[in-house]
Write a structure and sequence with these properties.
alpha/beta; six-stranded mixed β-sheet; about 575 residues; ATPase-coupled lipid transmembrane transporter activity; ABC transporter transmembrane region fold; disordered N terminus; elongated; Rossmann fold; 12 strands; four-stranded antiparallel β-sheet
Length: about 575
């Protein structure tokens, strides 16, 4: 059985039910709306009954008192109906808000916990959750509560005259057919329009992110042309989908207007035959409008239902792909020791392992350097040691316990991480160093910055530690961002420090400061793991691990490994020279 199959089985076994639970949590509100809908729809009969009384009683008796009494009664009933309708709308708005509130943090954390495999949408799930909330708070959702009452209004039309009832039923059947055709013939077109539009937006975002490269390399016109083609394709798909939806919507509207006239014509015929009164004819027209209004409203807003349905599927897929964390027993602060045995790692979405049968360890007070060519597996190892990528087999132990025995947030407090591509979040410098904690401990922040030799640099910023960082931190150099990120890694006194190409953006002075930080960290009995191919980065390493295509080539004391590597390099060079001379 392949690694992907095993992972998929694990996901399926861990399927989550937060969506259903959130929906069920508002059951009481739904029942309240259902109860209010009963009275609202019964009060919808006020108009037809008033029409019957006016035409058949008031006009016949010419009684002004009766008219006044009926008018006052109708005014009261309509006022009461308006209150109930307003109340159920407010209840549904709160139901949608509660639904979103109960899930927004879960969805956000699931997005952060999800292992990217290149197939997921880029952060659209929060918009999906908002789409569902918008639907529940919209009038079209209330139309679903009114829809079951359409048969009642049709029955009332039958009571007035059977032929009027059959006319209304035939018209309703045609509208239902239009709605079904609308669903089956437009859903794929709408989905395709959404996909092409998302592709165009993604290209625009990527081009904006790489604006320096695009402008400096003369790529602006070429990228703009490519985006324009995608945008034009998206626009064509949207117009095509809108044309189909519009054709069904206008057909529905035109047919309903025709049906309104048709039932008046049928009613007028029976009035002429003496089988129906004028009041009943007008009442039948009003009842028909009430019976068909929910159908037409649902049909006209069908795209809203489609988007919400797609949003539900997207959220369900996200939650299913990120199994819910189980409660774990809190472990004590671990010893600064990493032990890796028979580790195999398969990248998310891949099938071939990038790390194969790795065995090594790092003891307290020691630093391990992981070196190798690009693509040898250094960054994959860093992500595995951090618990970001799960292991396909083997184990990684921190202080004697496997990584999955630690709560992820607690594990993050024990391991400091400096990634190869530094990412700082919107907020102050202090908040970033404090890992976006709600209560920033100023003393701990300054202490971490001093350990990272970043304190003096931070003081030169416009507002020091209170300098606001925007989305791209354009006012910080690469070296400054790397120092702030190193301070963040050191915040909270971690026991393990993992550095991935830590001096890629540092100058000579910055590299010396980094080595001093590593020395002090080791002196405190902590452990350091450095992924790099630069000699300056491994100056403080005690042992070296050489990777090549995901396997261990050499592991041992730094100087011995370096000598062996140089000897192998010299031997390869001599062999190449000998081959050249022979040729």
């Amino acid at each position: 059985m392949g690694f992907n199959t095993v992972n998929q089985l694990h996901v399926n076994e861990s399927k989550r039910h937060e969506l259903i639970d959130a929906r069920k949590s508002g059951t009481a509100l739904i029942w309240a709306v259902f109860l209010f809908s009963i009275f609202v729809n019964l009060l919808m009969l006020t108009g037809p009954l008033f029409m019957l009384q006016v035409y058949d009683r008031v006009l016949g008796s010419r009684s002004e008192e009766t008219l006044a009494a009926l008018f006052v009664l109708v005014g009261f009933l309509y006022f009461f109906m308006g209150l109930l309708d307003y109340a159920r709308g407010r209840i549904m708005a709160r139901y949608g808000a509660n639904f979103q509130t109960s899930l927004d943090r879960t969805i956000f954390e699931a997005r952060l916990s999800r292992i990217p495999d290149g197939s997921q949408s880029k952060g659209a799930e929060l918009k999906d959750l908002e789409s569902i909330q918008t639907l529940t708070a919209s009038p079209v959702f209330l139309a679903l509560f009114d829809l079951p009452w359409s048969p009642l209004f049709l029955f009332a039309i039958f009571v007035l005259h059977p032929m009027l009832g059959w006319t209304a039923c035939a018209g309703g059947a045609v509208l239902v057919v239009i709605a079904v055709l609308n669903q089956f013939l437009t859903v794929r077109k709408t989905q395709r329009a959404n996909v092409t539009s998302f592709q165009a937006q993604s290209l625009a975002a990527q081009a904006e992110h790489a604006r320096d490269v695009v402008q400096s390399q003369g790529m602006r016109h070429a990228v703009s042309e490519r985006w324009h083609k995608k945008q034009s394709a998206a626009l064509d798909d949207r117009i095509n989908a809108a044309d189909w939806v519009g054709s069904f919507t206008t057909s529905s509207k035109a047919f309903r207007l025709f049906l309104q006239s048709a039932i008046l014509a049928v009613g007028a015929y029976f009035v002429l035959q003496g089988e129906l009164t004028g009041g009943a004819m007008i009442a039948a027209s009003i009842l028909l409008g009430r019976a068909l209004a929910p159908i037409e409203q649902c049909l006209g807003q069908w795209q809203v239902f489609q988007r919400s349905r797609q949003a539900w599927s997207s959220l369900d897929a996200l939650l299913s792909a990120t199994p819910k964390a189980k409660p774990l027993t809190a472990l004590p602060r671990p010893k600064a020791q990493i032990l890796v045995r028979k580790l195999v790692v398969v990248p998310p979405g891949g099938s071939a392992p990038t790390l194969k049968n790795l065995n090594f360890g790092v003891n307290p007070g020691h630093a391990l350097g992981v070196i190798g060519r690009s693509g040898s597996g250094k960054s994959s190892l860093a992500k595995a040691l951090l618990g970001i990528w799960p292991s396909a087999s083997g184990e990684i132990r921190l202080g004697g316990a496997e990584l999955d025995q630690y709560d992820p947030d607690k594990l993050g407090q024990y391991i400091g991480y400096l990634p190869q591509s530094v990412a700082l979040l919107p907020g102050t410098v202090a908040e970033n160093i404090a890992r976006m904690s709600a209560n920033v401990d100023g003393d701990a922040v300054v202490a971490a910055a001093k350990r990272a030799n970043a304190h003096d640099m931070i003081l030169t910023l416009p507002n020091g530690y209170d300098t606001q960082l925007d989305g791209d931190q354009s006012h910080l150099s690469g070296g400054q961002k790397q120092r702030v990120a190193l301070a963040r890694a050191l915040f909270g006194d971690p026991v393990i420090l993992i550095l991935d190409e830590p001096n890629s953006a540092l100058d000579a002075e910055g590299s010396q400061a980094l080595n001093q930080t590593i020395r002090e960290f080791k002196t405190e009995g902590k452990a350091v793991i450095i992924m790099s191919h630069r000699p300056q980065a491994i100056a403080e390493c005690d042992t070296l691990l050489v990777l090549d295509q995901g396997t261990v080539v050499s592991f041992g004391p730094r100087d011995e490994v370096m000598k062996a590597q140089l000897k192998n390099a010299d031997q390869i060079k001599r062999n190449l020279n000998a081959q050249a001379v022979a040729k």
